[in-house]
Design goal:
alpha+beta, Beta Polymerase, domain 2, two-stranded antiparallel sheet, 9 helices, 7 strands
Length: about 210
C-alpha cells in the first residue's frame, strides 16, 4: 500500500509547482568528505557515496551532516584495517552492518564517516558501475540509490527520489521500476506515485 502522505501529495499536486529549471539543473560538490584522502586509503576496495550526499550527482546539492559510503560486506575488515592504519578511529557499530569512523585531531570539526556494509544481491553490480559527482567521487548509480531511498522510506528520502526522477529518461525509469519490483516489491506503488509527482511538478522527463 502506498505511503499515505504520497497519496495526499498526489491529490494536491499542481503542474509547474516544483523548483525552477535553472535550479534543478545545478550540480555542485561543495561539501567535502570528512576524510579527504579516502580514495587512497580504500584503494582496491570498491565504494560509493550513498545517502543525501550521493544525490548531488543527480539533483541540486543539499548540505547534510550525514556522510555515508557503502562497501560490500566481504571488504569490511580490510576497510577497517586500512582506516585504522591511516590514523583514524572506529567510533561505533551499526546493527544493520557497518561502522562509523572519526577523523584525526585536525579534523575534529568534521562529521564522522559512516561506512555501511551489505550483502544484498545487487550490491556488487552497483559498486561496479558507479556514477560520479562534480568532485569526481564515486556515487551509487541512480537506480540503486532510488531503490535504497524507497526502502528507507523517510520523507526526506522520498523527496529526493522525486527530484532525481525529474531528469530520468523513460527507459531508465522503467528499468528502475523493474529493479524495485524485484528487490522491494512493496515500494512499487510509492515509486509510481513519485514518478507522477515528478512529472506534474517539474514537467515530463526528457
Amino acid at each position: 500500500m502506498a505511503h499515505p502522505l504520497l497519496r495526499m501529495a498526489l491529490r494536491r499536486a499542481r503542474p509547474g509547482t516544483g523548483s525552477s529549471e535553472s535550479f534543478l539543473g545545478r550540480r555542485t560538490a561543495v561539501q567535502p568528505l570528512p576524510i579527504a584522502n579516502l580514495p587512497s586509503i580504500l584503494a582496491g576496495i570498491p565504494w560509493v557515496l550513498v545517502g543525501g550526499l550521493a544525490t548531488r550527482a543527480y539533483m541540486p546539492e543539499r548540505i547534510t551532516q550525514d556522510v555515508d559510503i557503502l562497501i560490500h560486506a566481504e571488504h569490511e575488515w580490510r576497510a577497517r584495517a586500512a582506516l585504522v592504519a591511516a590514523g583514524y578511529r572506529i567510533e561505533g557499530e551499526f546493527s544493520i552492518g557497518g561502522f562509523s569512523v572519526r577523523g584525526m585531531a585536525a579534523d575534529e570539526g568534521a562529521p564522522p564517516l559512516d561506512v555501511l556494509t551489505s550483502r544484498a544481491p545487487w550490491v556488487e553490480q552497483a559498486l561496479n558501475q558507479p556514477g560520479y559527482d562534480e568532485a569526481g567521487l564515486p556515487v551509487m548509480p541512480r537506480p540503486y540509490l532510488i531503490l535504497l531511498k524507497l526502502q528507507a522510506g523517510h520523507l526526506r528520502d522520498l523527496d529526493d527520489v522525486q527530484r532525481m526522477l525529474r531528469d530520468t529518461p523513460p527507459e531508465e525509469r522503467q528499468a528502475i521500476r523493474l529493479l524495485v519490483a524485484r528487490y522491494a516489491p512493496d515500494g512499487v506503488e510509492d515509486y509510481d506515485i513519485l514518478v507522477q509527482l515528478a512529472d506534474i511538478e517539474f514537467g515530463a522527463a526528457p
